[in-house]
Amino acid sequence: MNKDTKNTTKKKKSFFSDRRFKYGSAAVVFTVVVVASIIAFNAIFGMLARALLWYSDMTAEQLYGITDASRELLADLSSEDVHIKIIFCTPRDKLEEEYHQKLVHQSALSYEKEFDFVEVEYLDIITNPSSVNKYKTTAATTIKTTNVIIENGSDYRVFAIEAFYTFAESDNRVFAFNGEMKITSAIMQLCYSNPIAYFTVGHGETTTSSQLAGLFELAGYDVRTIDLTKEDIDPSAQVVVINGPKYDFLGVNQETNEIAKIADFLDAYGNLMVFMDANAMGTQEFHELNEFLSEWGISFGKSLIKDVDNSISADGYSLVSEYMTEGMGSSLTTSLRDLETVPKAIVRYTMPIEILWENRSIDQGSRTVSPVLVTSDTAQAYGFENENEIISTGSYNLVTITQDSVYVDNEPYTSYVLAVGTTNFTSQDYLASNAYGNADIIFSAMKAMGREKVPLNIDFRLFEDKSLDITVTQANAWTVVYTAVIPAIVLICGIVVWVRRRHL
Questions:
Q1: Structural domain boundaries of the chain?
Q2: For residues 173 and 430, what is the distance between their CA atoms, to the nearest angstrom?
Q3: At what angle do helices 438-448 and 211-218 cross, to 10 degrees?
């Protein structure tokens, strides 16, 4: 064996006993052990997280978390008084497979973790269809696997999965999750007394299918329709809503006096909300209704308000209103004005409301009228027949509230009439976005009218909000900044650099 062969053999024999080989093997083994430990830890932690509800809402929009608003609304409930069940009609593992069901499920689990009186249950209605028989109101009622049932004792509500989401009117796409609002309001409906909100019918109104009716339901009202030509108002009702009538109400010298029924209801400390349709007012006479409202100190002006400088639409009709900061009407917007960033209240395609008097004595009581929202001083009133004819310019009342206070045996009793010059105030465009304060104003009016608990500060969770809510004036200012100011700064900097380089 020559010398080279001996060296090669020596090298081969020494490779496995080499210190680097030993350290390298130890490193590989250590790496494998660490990776295996991490995998095992993740698996165990995942099982414990699912079993013990170790979930935290880390989404940017905080989609299924519970806010302090819900905690305050449900604070006085306990497991001794109520037992809320949130029941899903499909097995638990299946809920995690579909995104929209998963969000509702995670929201329900948050309630179970937060409140001792809430329990989440699961039914498999495919293998056991009879398990939901008690929730069917009629033999024709169908309960789907996507339905969610919220129950308290013998009382319950059945919701479609779509009820926990908000859809765009234009293309019917899902753009917001309102699971917290829906669950909290359902618990309120099941645990607290439900006052009646009547929507009048028989005059072309929009009733229970409206977004406004949805707000009342969220606030825990028992929403009903009423034909005043055939029915009387239940004395226990809290509010009557007139939402966009196309025709006048029956009054004096008519076979049935609808106006008298509304007046008697208000005299018995009831409340009224009136949302008028500007298009209807431009073509129809509302003699009876207007005469009645004049007794409450208001009158709808027969004109349309436009303010190009303070509008979020190019046509100038989507007015960015101004909040009153004094008077009774300001109390409806206090919670909004106290926010660090005050949301806009949009009033689109509206008539002005004239205040006929500020204070007036009525028998043993007094009535006070106050604006809630007004326009800027640059607003203009245009005639119905000729939209190019400017009738006047100035500040106009857009939303008003009249308060009638009466003392009986030294106890105060109050009635309210809220008036809005458009039905667009409660359109989905303005109710479903956190950028606008329209819904909060309606909730505040409900609270003033006696509904102590309303989901005032529970917002929709927008999945993605790319909408702009700046006024035309602001848009023009930003256009100038981006098209003129910034290029000018760049140009000046370029000239300075060029001049300095020439003199180097």
A1: 61-193, 196-450
A2: 16
A3: 50
Q: How far apart are CA 453 and CA 220, in angstroms?
A: 8
Cα separation of 329 and 368, whole Å? Answer: 10
In the structure encoding, which two tokens stand for residue 164, read together?
Answer: 């926990």
CATH for 196-450 is 3.40.50
Please give the model's pTM, rounded to 2 decimal places: 0.73
| 56 vs 103: which has the higher pLDDT | 103
Burial of 246 (0-12, 13-18, 19+ CB in 10 A): middle
CB crowding 101-135: b at 16 or more within 10 Å, else e: bebbbbbbbbbbeebebbbbeebebeeeeeebeeb
Tally helices (H) and strands (E) across the chain. Answer: 15, 23
Place of tokens 């100035």: 394
**For 1-10, what is the mean pLDDT?**
52
The one-letter code for the residue type at 196 is I
Q: Rounded to whole angstroms, how far apart are CA atoms 179 and 109?
A: 12
CB atoms under 10 Å from CB of 362, counted, come to 13
Domain 61-193 fold is: Glutaredoxin (3.40.30)
Q: What one-character-per-residue DSSP string does 135-164 give? A: G-SSTT----TT-EEEEETTEEEEE-GGGG
